[in-house]
Design brief:
Oligomer: single chain
Radius of gyration: 18 Å
Length: about 210
């Protein structure tokens, strides 16, 4: 059975690709199968660059094709920030008692948008996914897809089922925040869901 490494230890992400690829006779492995792989520095300036950097590193180390993704939030009123720095956006701020890093990021975001009216709080989640074969020399030789999810930033968090910026990201089409959605709703609407479906469509053709 052909194997592909998904550059994550997140079991949910692994299942997203594993189930449809099994139909093609492909086994998806996570980084948990390769404990020798340590942290990989993602020092790109775009989501696509970071996805390629991580996938290439994993492919070259394991000798297997690898898939990686990078994603984040872009806010128009903040000139596209936090962008590729989404996960560490508020690292310059101290954590409050009992506060998670996600909650700190949301707190900083809402502070920076405090005086911005609703009609100017447009934002989007962006996801880039890269499929890289071992020895791939550059990003233009890799398979890279992109997904986006348009919405706006709320004035306060809503919902408890999401993570990251989900509680402050509002989907106008459904009329709820990302943290108020079911798993199925989120996969249908989200940037990552769009990217996963594009990648699978292209892999079906590429790996036949």
């Amino acid at each position: 059975m052909r194997q592909i490494v998904l550059a994550t230890k997140n079991e949910g992400k692994i299942r997203e690709l594993a189930e449809p690829l099994q139909v093609l006779g492909i086994e998806v492995l996570g980084l948990g199968s390769f404990p020798e792989i340590g942290d990989i520095e993602e020092n790109g300036t775009t989501f696509a660059e970071n996805a390629f950097i991580k996938a290439k590193a994993v492919a070259d180390i394991t000798g297997l094709a690898a898939v990686s993704d990078d994603s984040g939030l872009e806010v128009d009123a903040l000139s596209g920030r936090p962008g590729v720095y989404s996960a560490r956006y508020a690292n310059d701020m101290p954590l409050l008692d009992g506060e998670t890093k996600d909650e700190r990021n949301n707190r900083k975001l809402l502070m920076e948008l405090k005086s911005v009216p609703q009609e100017k709080r447009k934002a989007r989640f962006v996801c880039s996914m890269a499929y890289v074969e071992p020895g791939c020399p550059s990003a233009d030789k890799a398979l890279i897809v992109h997904g986006t999810w348009e919405g706006r930033i709320l004035e306060e968090p809503r919902g408890t089922d999401g993570f990251g910026y989900d509680p402050v990201f509002f989907d106008d089409a459904l009329g709820i925040s990302a943290a108020e959605m079911t798993r199925e709703q989120k996969m249908e609407r989200s940037h990552r869901g769009h990217a996963v479906r594009q990648l699978l469509d292209k892999l079906v053709v590429l790996l036949k």
